[in-house]
Amino acid sequence: MSDRTAVATAPQTTEQIRGWLLDRVAHYLGRPSADLAGHLPLSGYGRESVYTFALCADIERVLRVPVHPTVIWNIDTVDGLAAYLGFRSARR
């Protein structure tokens, strides 16, 4: 995925959200998404605060789900974050 955060159709399912999140995290880390594992802690990839705030903005813009940065810090895996966002998206 390119640097575009907007998608023609926002991801809806937990699995679609997971793929989208992996692409966004890979973008911020400057790595291919295939190099990332959704079950590993994001903190292990050298996450920075500015990246966390940017990811929150991406989530709010694309998924229309407000997310405080502490959610990303506390959940700390793409798989966990995708499950949380999938649940939150379904409740809208």
From TrEMBL:
Residues 20-85 form the Carrier domain. InterPro entries: ACP-like_sf (IPR036736), PP-bd_ACP (IPR009081). It comes from the Bacteria. It holds the Pfam family PP-binding. This is Acyl carrier protein. The lineage of its organism: Bacteria, Bacillati, Actinomycetota, Actinomycetes, Kitasatosporales.
